[in-house]
């Protein structure tokens, strides 16, 4: 079986090579890119299995955000992580709004970073194995096709990232039951903090509300978590 390919887009060469060497020791194939145009040209030829992107790329202060937007348009379910020195809440929320699955800061340890990458890739592997079963979940106006990672609301497609898809799946699978943030993390098979889960849920709601302004199927159980309301 071919090892997953990870793309690292990082303008500081020494840091990029450090990440590359660590991930290669774990068994991944790793490609390095130092600018947004270089990475985008490569992605247009062949997509990686996962992308790790810095926010600031050389002269482009927010080049990583632009690249995430472009890559997400090309591949709606590709796992994307930001790995950056910028740790403000605004930057984190901006990254998640653009469709990133995770947002890490560069003070994170290499083992922790590798664990987050492994968790995202494991979700993809699980989804591929489940796709053979052709699982479809329907709750009222919601239809989730696990085999294709497609989500529809009232017949209209909703473009969800991998993380968002699993959060919706976890909520809709047991309508009325409150899922805590930690349970949603487990369902999404990723390690996130509470604020990040909250940001994901807000973004999911906005995506549904773009299609249906009256959408209110995701309810908040204050101090506890979220539920799918029927």
TrEMBL record:
Superkingdom field: Bacteria
Signal peptide range in chain numbering: none
Keywords recorded for this protein, A-Z: DNA-binding, Phosphoprotein, Transcription, Transcription regulation, Two-component regulatory system
Modified residue annotations for 4-aspartylphosphate: 54
Keyword Transcription regulation listed: yes
Pfam families, sorted: Response_reg, Trans_reg_C
Residue ranges: DNA binding: 134-230
GO-annotated molecular function: phosphorelay response regulator activity; transcription cis-regulatory region binding
Ranges for domain OmpR/PhoB-type: 134-230
Keyword Transmembrane helix: no
Domain Response regulatory intervals: 5-121
GO cellular component: cytosol; protein-DNA complex
InterPro entries in the record: CheY-like_superfamily, OmpR/PhoB-type_DNA-bd, Response_regulator, Sig_transdc_resp-reg_C-effctor, Sig_transdc_resp-reg_receiver, WalR-like, WH-like_DNA-bd_sf
CDD domains associated with the record: REC_OmpR, trans_reg_C
GO biological process: regulation of DNA-templated transcription
UniProt-listed NCBIfam families: marine_sort_RR
PANTHER family per record: DNA-BINDING DUAL MASTER TRANSCRIPTIONAL REGULATOR RPAA (PTHR48111:SF21), REGULATOR OF RPOS (PTHR48111)
Entry protein name: Proteobacterial dedicated sortase system response regulator
Organism (species): Microbulbifer hydrolyticus
Gene: pdsR
């Amino acid at each position: 079986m071919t090892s997953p390919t990870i793309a690292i887009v990082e303008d500081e060469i020494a840091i990029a090579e450090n990440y590359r060497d660590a991930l290669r020791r774990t068994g991944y194939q790793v490609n390095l890119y130092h600018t947004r145009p270089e990475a985008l040209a490569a992605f247009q030829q062949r997509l990686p299995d996962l992308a790790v992107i810095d926010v600031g790329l050389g002269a482009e202060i927010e080049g990583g955000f632009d690249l995430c937007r472009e890559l997400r348009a090309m591949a709606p379910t590709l796992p994307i992580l930001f790995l950056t020195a910028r740790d403000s809440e605004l930057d984190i929320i901006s990254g998640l709004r653009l469709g990133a699955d995770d947002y890490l800061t560069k003070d994170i340890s290499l083992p922790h970073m590798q664990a987050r990458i492994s968790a995202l890739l494991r979700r993809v592997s699980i989804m591929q194995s489940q796709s053979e079963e052709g699982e479809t979940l329907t709750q009222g106006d919601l239809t989730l096709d696990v085999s294709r990672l497609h989500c529809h609301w009232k017949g209209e497609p909703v473009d969800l990232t991998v993380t968002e898809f699993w959060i919706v799946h976890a909520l809709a699978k047991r309508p009325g039951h409150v899922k805590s943030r930690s349970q949603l993390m487990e369902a999404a098979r990723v390690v996130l903090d509470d604020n990040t889960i909250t940001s994901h849920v807000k973004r999911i709601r906005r995506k549904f509300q773009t299609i249906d302004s009256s959408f209110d199927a995701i309810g908040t159980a204050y101090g506890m978590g979220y539920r799918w309301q029927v």
